[in-house]
């Protein structure tokens, strides 16, 4: 520490003395010249100033470039990942497989590294402290670029409108979403989504069915969540295929790979048309300048009202709704799909979750009605501790980086062990959640799936340790995090309580194993390289009168 302090003091003395030394040198150089005319004076002054600047340019650069940090802490530049492609840098390697690229770089360069991609330097940070400080920063030094994805997803083509649209999204729409989906207000929509899951499972499964896990989860969750949030005026069944096409092509849209994104582009435009018609059909004006969506959830009415009270056009509002809608579905679908795959291929895991569920039913939730009226607070209790740990472990294993911001000036990010990471103006900072969640010194055996990894870890303890980041943090934390956690757990509870599930055997007769991750996964939660089929049979105890099928 003493050597570090001495070095910092020497830096301070050298920097503080620059102006004095500069003037002294300027004076000494000029005194050697003894000018005899006005023209000569001018030329000699110019020469004098140039000489002094050449002598002290490195020190002046130190003044301009040195980021501010505590004198008692070390600061360091992130190691640069080498690349032999000018401007493109590591773009091809990263875009072809973000998870593999980040894993390889983390193993080779540590928790922080820098790489060039498309003319921009990206600093990937993985340490718990650095990610927490980065996401919670309120100094304005990092400009959020997440919203710049909205035009790509929504096809907003007028750049002059983008800044205003971002302001409406951040200051109006997201405020309404955060309020309406908060823990306090979640019960206003939770019972509806519970019933919609129940009815949709009944309609999809009937008495029994065998189908791919991905198709089963996507179809069931899409219809249930759409109906619970938007009501009967929105044609959830009729829009399902277009939504899936849009979701499949979203990575190509975000990467501007238009030649691959044509089906997604056309499906998105059809969805936007449906949203425009839905808003016109379902909106009911009220006295006092208000209004609401007939049959929809309160939170969706609040979001649409915030856009109607702005200067957004009808087309812009419909396009934003399509983006919100996509964001509210895609992560839940992918995460729940992984959960069902784990349950179908791991009989021990399935048995453990079923035993916990049965114990909760025996002690507290006696019939179908009590299960469908579960309060969100019930799912956070000890009765479902293993299920909650299950969700968190699936998210830990499969989350990809989502938060990226650009530095508007030179700065530093406080990291672990009193270290500071240097960030230069214009560099983008990526919260490398995959690196955080797969670091062996943070999570024991990080590549192994352990359903009870978070069983005895309280929410407060995780918040303090900062070792799990699944819904971001700070002012840009996911607005639908409480809704998503409730919906995913309720889906699993109902699936296991009302149905028998097992993985359908392969053509060889062998039971399938958990499929590997698709190395080309690009958005938020990984995809599987291949899918498995699941056999689902309705139990005789299921009350058919509210299932929606015979």
From TrEMBL:
Binding site for heme: 478
Name of one Pfam family that matches: p450
Keywords for the protein's UniProt record, in alphabetical order: Heme, Iron, Membrane, Metal-binding, Transmembrane, Transmembrane helix
Molecular function GO labels: heme binding; iron ion binding; oxidoreductase activity, acting on paired donors, with incorporation or reduction of molecular oxygen; steroid hydroxylase activity
Recorded superkingdom: Eukaryota
Cofactor(s) the record lists: heme
Keyword presence, Ribosomal protein: no
Transmembrane segments: 12-30, 42-63
InterPro entries assigned: CYP450_sterol_14alpha_dmase (IPR050529), Cyt_P450 (IPR001128), Cyt_P450_E_grp-IV (IPR002403), Cyt_P450_sf (IPR036396)
SUPFAM superfamilies: Cytochrome P450
Family: Belongs to the cytochrome P450 family.
Protein's name according to its UniProt entry: Cytochrome P450
Organism: Crucibulum laeve
């Amino acid at each position: 520490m003493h050597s570090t302090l001495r070095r910092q003091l020497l830096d301070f003395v050298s920097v503080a003395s620059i102006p004095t030394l500069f003037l002294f040198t300027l004076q000494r150089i000029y005194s050697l010249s003894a000018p005899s005319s006005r023209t000569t004076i001018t030329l000699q002054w110019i020469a004098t100033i140039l000489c002094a600047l050449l002598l002290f340019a490195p020190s002046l650069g130190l003044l301009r470039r040195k980021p501010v940090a505590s004198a008692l802490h070390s600061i360091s530049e992130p190691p640069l990942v080498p690349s032999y492609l000018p401007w493109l840098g590591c773009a091809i390697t990263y875009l072809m497989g973000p998870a593999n690229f980040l894993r390889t770089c983390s193993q080779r360069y540590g928790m922080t590294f820098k790489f060039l991609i498309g003319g921009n330097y990206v600093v990937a940070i993985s340490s718990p402290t650095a990610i927490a400080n980065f996401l919670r920063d309120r100094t304005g030094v990092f400009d959020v670029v997440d919203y710049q994805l909205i035009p790509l997803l929504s096809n907003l083509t007028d750049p002059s409108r983008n800044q205003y649209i971002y302001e409406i999204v951040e200051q109006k729409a997201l405020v309404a979403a955060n309020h309406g989906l908060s823990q306090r207000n979640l019960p206003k929509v939770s019972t509806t989504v519970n019933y919609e899951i129940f009815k949709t499972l009944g309609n999809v499964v009937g008495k029994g069915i065998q189908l791919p896990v991905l198709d089963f989860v996507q179809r069931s969750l899409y219809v249930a969540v759409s109906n619970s949030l938007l009501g009967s005026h929105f044609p959830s069944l009729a829009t399902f295929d277009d939504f899936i096409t849009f979701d499949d092509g979203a990575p190509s849209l975000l990467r501007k790979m238009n030649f691959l994104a044509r089906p997604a582009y056309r499906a998105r435009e059809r969805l936007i048309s449906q949203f425009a018609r839905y808003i016109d059909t379902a909106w009911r004006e009220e006295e006092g300048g208000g209004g609401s969506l007939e049959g929809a959830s309160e939170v969706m009415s609040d979001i649409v009202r915030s856009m109607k009270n702005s200067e957004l056009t009808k087309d812009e509002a419909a396009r934003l709704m399509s983006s919100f809608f996509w964001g509210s579905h895609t992560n839940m679908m992918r995460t729940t799909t992984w959960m069902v795959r784990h349950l179908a291929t791991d009989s021990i895991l399935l048995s453990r979750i079923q035993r916990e569920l049965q114990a909760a039913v025996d002690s507290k939730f006696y019939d179908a009605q009590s299960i469908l009226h579960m309060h969100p607070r019930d799912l956070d209790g000890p009765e479902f501790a293993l299920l909650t740990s299950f969700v968190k472990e699936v998210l830990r294993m499969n989350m990809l980086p989502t938060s990226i911001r650009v530095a508007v000036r030179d700065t530093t990010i406080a990291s672990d062990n009193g270290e500071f990471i240097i960030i230069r103006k214009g560099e983008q900072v990526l919260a490398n959640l995959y690196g955080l969640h797969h670091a062996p010194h943070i999570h024991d055996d990080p590549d192994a799936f352990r359903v009870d990894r978070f069983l005895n870890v309280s929410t407060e303890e995780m918040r303090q340790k900062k070792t799990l980041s699944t819904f971001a943090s700070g002012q840009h934390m996911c607005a639908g995090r409480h809704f998503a956690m409730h919906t995913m757990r309720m889906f699993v509870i109902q699936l296991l309580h009302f149905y028998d599930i097992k993985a359908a055997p392969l053509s060889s007769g062998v039971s399938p194993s958990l499929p590997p991750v698709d190395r080309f996964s690009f958005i938020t939660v990984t995809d599987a390289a291949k899918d498995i089929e699941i056999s689902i049979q309705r139990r005789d105890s299921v009350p058919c009168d509210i299932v929606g099928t015979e």
